[in-house]
Amino acid sequence: MAGYGPPPAERRRRRNADTYADVQVTVSADTVPAEVPPLPGARRYLKPTRDWYETWCKSPQAAAFIDTDWQRLHMLAPIVDQYFREPSPKLLAEIRLNESLLGATHVDRLRGRIKVEQRSTTSDRGTADNVADLMAERRRRLMSDAS
């Protein structure tokens, strides 16, 4: 079974220093890359593939991409398009592997030492505290209606 091995022992003692402790890329969730290369041959791809590429272009980690990262996405686009046309586990595994290297998920970003700073502005819906207050108020109202 594939994986990253057993979890480390709770009382382990590290004898060698972490050589990458000071290396970390920090990007803002509000930041979008200044220059996004267009997807080559975009018209021949399905809309979901173009949407996939656009999602990557708007992702915070894309602000840290260099030419080779964009090249990786361009090479991956035909595979993603083929997956949308005929889904298969082999294609999905290849996509997952490549996206993981680019920091697709939270765990991938932790492994790659990519830190995404949360948005500084609140959304139209309000802050998390406001949402919690609204949910508590709704719960109280439902409980009083039930009795």
Notable characteristics:
147 residues, mainly alpha, two-stranded parallel sheet
Element layout with pairings:
Elements: E1 25-28, H1 47-58, H2 67-85, H3 89-102, H4 106-111, E2 114-117, H5 128-146
Parallel strand pairs: 1-2
Helix pairs in contact: 1-2, 2-3
Structure description:
The protein has 147 residues and is mainly alpha-helical. The chain has a domain at 25-121. The chain is 48% helix and 5% strand. The protein has five helices and two strands, in the order βααααβα. The protein has helices spanning 47-58, 67-85, 89-102, 106-111, 128-146, and strands at 25-28, 114-117. The protein has a two-stranded parallel sheet with strand order 1-2. α1 packs antiparallel against α2. The radius of gyration is 21 Å and the shape is extended. It starts with 24 loop residues before the first strand and ends with a helix.
Listing every helix as H and every strand as E from the N terminus to the C terminus, the arrangement reads EHHHHEH
Strand content: 5-15%
Rg calc: 21 Å
Instruction: Briefly note the structural class of the backbone.
Output: mainly alpha
Helix run count: 5
Span between termini: 52 Å
Oligomer: single chain
Could you describe the largest sheet, including whether it forms a barrel? 2 strands, parallel
Shape: extended
